[in-house]
Design brief:
Helix content is about 45%, strand content about 20%. The chain is built from nine helices and eleven strands. A hairpin with a 7-residue loop joins strand 5 and strand 6. The N terminus is likely disordered.
Length: about 400
């Protein structure tokens, strides 16, 4: 039975048709313009094709509009895994014949074998964290089943990073427009230290505190970073935007800059807490260190007492005038017990002081964790007037 032009399978009808060669080879003819990713489709895989051919659906010459006929082919390895034959054509124009191939540019860039979405995903994975190219390759294979070596991963990121970042930015801007998200007027500003090829750069960033929009961010070399740079960046970033308040850390240069912008200056809660806690943490660390030293010394003293008791085992009453060693041991034990007594008293005082600092730290933390402003103010006033607080 001749199966060469057997009717197309309905599941794959929209994408192309199935044929059988004279030698019985089962071929899927995929129309150009469709995604090559159909080869990973479950229904497609079930058919178990011997060959995939990319063909033109419209057999009209794009140059002279004459009828086109098949004229050779070439193979390329899609995602370095699946061979696909690209069909060639020539037009029947007797005056000037044109030659074209079915286009694979729907998914694959020129001079590349990998799917464009695979390349994009590889670059997007590299934006998640600082991962080696080997690790990126492993992640990409786990997610897609496509194996990409480390050199190709480097090429993906090096060649496409700017394009993909721009594409992501456009997608985000479109989403923001759809959701009608607008700047609130309340912004946060901070810098991040970044080393690039051993050189220190500052990443200046302004973010909307209400809706978490990044208003602007910019990299600048540490040598060029100063108060004028910050002011210029803020003015450019917030131009034509309503500015109600700007939240920063405790850098002394910010109040004047923000005042010039006509905004209210807020101190970042995290940094206020950090500054409040810094001295307290030093005291807590000092006290804990001293208590640990006392405990260690007392343990050593107890061990010495046991050792001396062993040496004086069986001896009772007062030592004789001739037993100078026993007298010496008695004197040593008395000194050790006196030292331990003093250390116990000191440890007790240090523990009380430590408890005060830890309670104070917890109560300061609770102020900032308050859900209501009234609660925070009440906690603050109670803490301020509490005579049990440590001196600081």
């Amino acid at each position: 039975m001749n199966r060469k032009n057997e009717p197309t399978d309905y599941t794959l009808f929209d994408y192309g048709f199935i044929t059988f060669d004279d030698d019985g080879k089962k071929v899927y003819n995929l129309y150009e313009g469709n995604s090559l990713r159909i080869v990973y489709n479950t229904d497609f895989q079930k058919e178990n094709f011997d060959e995939i051919r990319l063909i033109k659906k419209d057999l009209v010459c794009p140059h002279c509009h004459a009828r086109m006929v098949k004229n050779g082919s070439y193979k390329f390895k899609y995602n370095k895994m699946i061979f696909i034959r690209i069909s060639g054509y020539k037009c029947c124009n007797t005056n000037h014949t044109h030659y074209v191939y079915a286009s694979k540019l729907k998914d694959v860039d020129k001079f590349c074998s990998f799917d464009r979405e695979i390349r994009k995903l590889g670059v997007k994975l590299s934006l998640i964290d600082f991962l080696s190219y080997d690790k990126l390759s492993e992640l990409l294979e786990a997610l897609t089943g496509v194996n990409v070596n480390r050199e190709t991963m480097f090429y993906f990121t090096d060649d496409s990073i700017d394009e993909i970042l721009e594409e992501i930015q456009k997608e985000q801007e479109l989403e923001i427009t759809k959701l009608n998200i607008k700047p609130s007027g309340h912004y946060g500003y901070d810098e991040q230290y970044i080393f690039i090829n051993g050189e220190l750069f500052m990443r200046m960033t302004i973010i909307d505190n209400k809706n978490n929009l990044i208003i602007n961010n910019e990299l600048i070399h540490k040598d060029d970073f100063n108060q004028n740079t910050i002011q210029d960046f803020m003015e450019r970033s917030l131009k034509n935007l309503e500015v109600k308040s700007i939240t920063t850390d405790g850098n002394n240069s910010y109040p004047n800059i923000i005042d010039a912008l006509g905004a209210i200056h807020h101190r970042c809660v995290f940094h206020i807490m950090k500054n409040l806690m810094d001295d307290i943490k030093k005291d807590i660390h000092r006290l804990e260190k001293r208590i640990n030293t006392i405990n260690s010394t007392k343990d050593k003293n107890k061990a010495k007492l046991k050792e001396l008791d062993k040496l004086d085992k069986g001896k009772k009453g007062k030592p004789s005038k001739e037993d100078k060693e026993w007298k010496k041991h008695i004197k040593e034990k008395k000194k050790i017990r006196s030292e331990n007594s003093k250390l116990t008293t000191e440890r007790s005082n240090k523990r009380k002081e430590l408890k005060q600092f830890k309670t104070f730290k917890r109560r300061v933390s609770l102020i900032f964790k308050s859900k209501k402003e009234k609660t925070a103010i009440n906690r603050y006033n109670k803490l301020l007037n509490d005579k049990r607080n440590p001196r600081k």
